[in-house]
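pinging the channel bc i need a second pair of eyes. not urgent but kinda urgent?? the chain im working w is below, pasted from the shared doc
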Amino acid sequence: MYSPNEKRYDKMIYRRCGNSGLKISAISFGLWHNFGSDSNFENCRSMIHTAFDSGITNFDLANNYGPNPGDAEINFGRILKQDLAQYRDQLTISSKAGFLMWPGPFGDGGSRKYIIASCDQSLKRMGLEYVDIFYHHRPDPETPVEESMLALDQIVRSGKALYAGISNYPPAQAIKAINILRELKTPFVLNQIPYNIINRYHEDNGLLQLMADEGVGCIIFCPLAQGLLSGRYLNGIPEDSRAVRNRTTYKELLSKNPNAVFTDAQITQEWITILNQLNQIAVKRGQTLAQMAVAWLLSRTGVTSALVGASRPQQIMETVKALDNLVFSREEIDEIEHISRNFK
């Protein structure tokens, strides 16, 4: 029988989501990858245990996480029932809807029908009466923002979620969503966006500052740029890496889509040089490159939590060590800025 670490709250940092009363762990655990039907269930279970034992209380899912879509929620629900049911009130659990989930005209997007049905399905898969946060996963160009926000409002008012959130919303649509939910008096706490040392789009377009000004938190996905900042490329390109299979650069991806994440980016010798330059700063700080990347995020204005994934428990324990040093000198900040703005 699983018994959590009694000292799990001693070192973790908990931050308020904007101006709300809700606090989440500064490091959150995401089940985007490695929790589907092709994953080892006992390894999934061990990762959830390790996360909770480390003080991580915020667990992030979506209706389409798998593979297959929905399987991450099913596996998480099994772990909750087996091991964490009595600790439910110590957890914040979130899910989302917005991407393709089932065939037909109502299985994707931002319609009221799709969002509410998706929430009901997610709760059933996880065996929950409510989630703490339910997000609209992306703005839908074919659906008015008002309709999507009214759906979130109904989900909260019905007790199926405690708070509303959005994900991948750019500034103009984000402020529209904020104003609608504020008028409805719907508790709205987080915008989930991609952001990291080398993807600064949502810093440059003012979104992070806007959320801070409006009293809304930001939870950051892809803090390691899908592996670029993990440290695995410091000595060259591993033969099994995604970089070997595609020759599109990360900067090219971002120029086409500001929310693009590193999936098949080309790693050039210039890239390896830049990553090693960043790693030299991390070493001086007593951190790995990945730990410094997470620490850097948590030092930025408007950032509430860094959302990390893992494929094994040890990775979670290593990531949490980023909290040991969150303070950056002016010299370190300037050096990181200079290096990171020159990526290819």
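so The domain at 14-227+287-329 is CATH 3.20.20.100 (TIM Barrel). and The mean pLDDT is 93. — does that match what u expected or am i reading it wrong
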